[in-house]
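Case study.
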Amino acid sequence: MAPVLVLAEHDAANGAVKKVTLELLTLARRLGEPVAVWFGAGSGDALELLGQYGASTVYVADGSGVTDHPVVPMVDVLAALVADVSPAAVLVPSSADGKEVAGRLAVRTGSGVITDAVDIDASGVATQSVFGGSTVVHSKVTSGTPIYTVRSNSVAPEAAPTTCTAQPVSVEVSDVAKKATVTDRTVASKGGRPELTEAAVVVSGGRGVGGPEGFSVIEKLADSLGAAVGASRAATDAGWYPHQYQVGQTGKTVSPQLYIANGISGAIQHRAGMQTSKVVVVVNKDAEAPIFELADFGVVGDLFEVVPQLTDEIEKRAN
Amino acid sequence: MKIAVCVKQVPDTWAEKTLRPEDSTLDREAPDGVLNELDEYAVEEALQIAEAHGGEVTVVSMGPARAAETVRKALSMGADAGIHVQDDALHGSDAIATSAVLAAALEGKGFDLIIFGSESTDARMSVIPAMVAERLGIAQLTFAQRVSVSGSDVTIERVTDYGFDTITASMPAVVSVVEKINEPRYPSFKGIMAAKKKPVETLGVSELGLDVAAVGQAAAWSAVEDFAARPPKPAGTIVADEGEGGARIASYLTEQKFI
Ligand SMILES: Cc1cc2nc3c(=O)[nH]c(=O)nc-3n(C[C@H](O)[C@H](O)[C@H](O)COP(=O)(O)OP(=O)(O)OC[C@H]3O[C@@H](n4cnc5c(N)ncnc54)[C@H](O)[C@@H]3O)c2cc1C
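After joint prediction, the assembly is written out as follows.
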């Protein structure tokens, strides 16, 4: 079986394998033999988990400047691997880095690229959910080595245990990669909550939250469910909540198992970032708010009454 | 300094977007075409850099005839000149071909900075800036929430999941910007009048030295097999809060095994 290269995304700070990597390994098994590609340090601790999800090999590209330059060293290594092992496909996460790696790799290897796939079948046909989830498209790469970027939470990771061995690859960082250098990394505190695009549950607040203090109600609910916090653009533009938590057209696209929208009207640009959530719960005091069209369960009411009660109930039931 | 800003005309984000049944391409005739919102931030950033360091801003766009309006919009904000790549052969081009066309339009013109919005609100691929940097063989500084120019160097803050990375390069460089970088200006009446007289060069594919057969839908390296509207979601349960709204959600979440 031909190998399928999977870019193993991991936490830049602690090296923990991201859940999307396990999802990619699960999809890769439909297309061939999954092989992980790891950039930077920390692969040793990941071997067991990568093996558990079916990767027999992890190519490790560490040292000599892989992480000193943005994006391009990953393209250099993947392009060399594409030439060496002739993979059936290359799968990368739909993160900012992942999409740029995919785009450049496509140009460099003469391959077609499909971004933001939510599913891939055994024949390589990808499913994409476009226009804010209103249209479902099936497409296929017709030239070169198919390259896919896949959204987090698209498939449930399935274990397929095997033994994973690390294989170091030599890294020749290209001259063009060296043209841009990372001089500093700034880590904003994320308060121990899961990452927005990876989280199984997202609790969001909008203009109805009323101000920065109001977000404490949203955060308490999120913490009772082990959820990530999201926000509408009205809330981030007003400076009530940091911009990187914005969900929607010009923010993050999330696809969690459960999305709880509080004080959010449901503008088309907000829906574009959350419409593919599996279950949607809405709290809004306006019964006419369009967000109710997406609700599996909705309460028409004041979020400052409903949300704290919900948080209490969850804590009661959990004990 | 010579600065290029690449802009795209997109359907208004408020409009219903649909694919054309005959060839699965976006119906660009139907909804109102507007300047891609994120590109407004790119134009603003280019103008601010030119104002601070001196220089000229050229707007570059690939798109059908009506995309000329989008080029004018950027000119009315204050850009100096425009290049509009327009050719029927381009219809249905994928990102690969689009990046080749833009790179050809930009190459050899001595641009120090080439600025993009970080994504278009219609295709949402976020790959064109990286692809253009790949083709031109110059530095890629993308997803910038801050850009500063000093001498021949440009430094950005690249937004990441954990915060941001500070990245530096010598010019020339490709930069893409996110929306928190600045507050785009509105075109003034004077700006709108002045834009009418600014030079816009309209170029076809062969004038860029590209093969017509290498662009457009037939040349795409990926193809749509089929598409369909997502089936409407069945109506959910909506209740009015009568003092037990929170508890009712908790019961629903328990039923659904979230608690
Ligand atoms: C190009 C473009 C891109 C955009 N990108 C995004 C994006 O990425 N993400 C995004 O979110 N938006 C985006 N927007 C903005 C979008 O159009 C809306 O303006 C925005 O989503 C509105 O946010 P909101 O729902 O929080 O606010 P509003 O629309 O003002 O809604 C607030 C809601 O809160 C309810 N409410 C008020 N008080 C309470 C209370 N006490 N209890 C319960 N409910 C209450 C109200 O009934 C109302 O429904 C974009 C717009 C454009 C033009």
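Observations recorded in class. DSSP finds eight helices and 15 strands in chain A. Residues 303-318 of chain A form the longest helix (16 residues). We will return to this complex in the next lecture.
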